[in-house]
Amino acid sequence: MSASSVSEPHLATKVMISMTHVEKWYGAFKALSDINLSVRQGERIVLCGPSGSGKSTLIRCINHLEAYQKGRIHVGGILLTDASSTINSIRREVGMVFQQFNLFPHLTVMQNCMLAPMRSLGLGKAEAATTARKYLDRVRILEQAEKYPAQLSGGQQQRVAIARALCMRPRVMLFDEPTSALDPEMVKEVLDTMIGLAEDGMTMICVTHEMGFARQVADRVIFMASGSIVEEAPPAQFFSNPTHERTKKFLGDILRKH
Amino acid sequence: MGHDEFLFLLAGLKWTIGLSVIGFICGGISGLGVALARTSGNPVLERVMKGYIALFQGTPLLMQLFVVYYGLALIGLKLDAWVAVSIGFTLHASAYLGEIWRGSIDAVPRGQTEAAEALSLTYLPRMRDVILPQALRISLPATIGFLVQLIKGTSLASIVGFVELTRAGNIISNQIFQPLLVFGIVGCLYFIICWPLSLFGTHLERQFATSTR
């Protein structure tokens, strides 16, 4: 199979993200090996796997928070290179939500949401404020708009982080273990927000261990181990009938925990 | 000690403050450049700045003033004493503030940079709107501490003949032969500038801490 055949035109109009033979190295350590993944517009992907399997690294390559060394990544038809103009234009299309929220602590919720649209999309202040209010309302946290992040609970902060990413009107959302740093009683409010996004047709790639979420919204579940994609299947098949030993063991471990 | 002598001390104090302000502002502006160069990710630039900081932190301020004052005269630049010491203090302050702020920029959690990058913020807005405001807060105690050091350090400018507060005290003391009284007053004058500054630093620190908590 040649490098180009995976991202060939028959799907090109609908493919949002394609990764072909992607490799990522940290010095001598191979963090990702021969990753091939194609995500169509509106598709919801859940990435899971043991820690250190490369799932975070994979999604961080998509918006170039991590550089990759081999293969090719296309986002919205644009080839992701090391050129900063390309990186920035791709980052405008790709929103990201982090495990540790990473809200800007010195800015209010409102300012957190307005900063990037004003600075990188060039929106005026009034327009940015309207957008911010719209998405803060959508994650049901508009009443906290004038507070600072540290005055909010973890779940509220993560919803603000989702709103902040949405204010850039991205075509793709990446979630990097968005509920892992939350107290159990706050997980649901964040997952509900993500489910709402999925229902609205957002293209999403979620690194998560929330298997209930995977079952409910994922079109495909991808299992990774040691930097490779081991198994890839619709959730019904993935959970009831995994084919690989490592997947079975992982599911056994995770289901025992819950 | 008479009225005139006291006024002479106050004139010296004026120069002490002036020199501190010049050193802090010019040193602050170039120090920001040093800090940004030190965190630029460009290995050559980072190494050059590291050397610059090491040079100024590893040598006495007095020697730096001598080099600027006599060194510039040797290469034919005849500068007023106050211009020469201003250059000296600016270089000195830029190295120290550069290093303090470099540390503060590095102390801002990595996730802040990543979040800003993920939002497509380029270097300038990322630094100006996200990283530097947080670094400033982290650096405040050390920055104010250095400013206090700088104010007291201006007394060294007296060695190259610049009449600031310490030099003024020396002159008066030689005239009225009451060194204990004169330098007692000089000490008090330094104290009433430096101490409120330290208090202000503590206050700012507390204010920033509550505004984000």
TrEMBL record, chain B:
Could you tell me the keywords of this UniProt record? Answer: Cell membrane, Membrane, Transmembrane, Transmembrane helix, Transport
Transmembrane spans: 15-39, 51-75, 81-101, 135-160, 180-200
Q: What family does the Swiss-Prot or TrEMBL record give for this protein?
A: Belongs to the binding-protein-dependent transport system permease family. HisMQ subfamily.
How is this protein positioned relative to the membrane?
A: Multi-pass membrane protein
NCBIfam families named among the record's database cross-references: HEQRo_perm_3TM
Q: What is the lineage of its organism?
A: Bacteria, Pseudomonadati, Pseudomonadota, Alphaproteobacteria, Hyphomicrobiales
- Its protein name is Amino acid ABC transporter permease
Which species does the entry assign this protein to?
Microvirga puerhi
Q: Per its UniProt record, what CDD domains does this chain match?
A: TM_PBP2 (cd06261)
Q: What Pfam families has UniProt attached to this entry?
A: BPD_transp_1 (PF00528)
